[in-house]
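Good morning C.,

I know you're traveling, so I'll keep this short. The sequence:
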Amino acid sequence: MFGIRDKLSKTILYTLNAADNDKLAAMAGCFQDAAAAGKIQFGSAWWFNDHYDGMTTQLKSLANIGVLSRFVGMLTDSRSFLSYPRHEYFRRILCEVIGGWIDKGMAPADFDGIGRIVEDICFNNVWNYIGLE
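The tokens, ready to paste straight into the viewer:
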């Protein structure tokens, strides 16, 4: 209803249950419009999923079902100074996943193009998404 009336806000969906990754990635894709790229997002692996396997699974679900290049990347629990290294951990996992696809021939070895996608996921997409342009 909100989508029909052009009242649907930008929304990021998170799950505490990795079994719901594919469902949320698919659901997010059902509510897009021209107002914002990636208006409804499937958010990063969070809380119980905020570990190597959880992040890898979330990235693969989003890439399989959604649009990975529009992903707004990792969030932080800003109440804890120690949560900031999680962004570095996320970036390393993201590059490992994408690099693995390149190594297997599943993604092009276009390092400039893939590099832009990684930069977008790690910074530019969220900057644009929240309107800091």
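Safe travels,
E.
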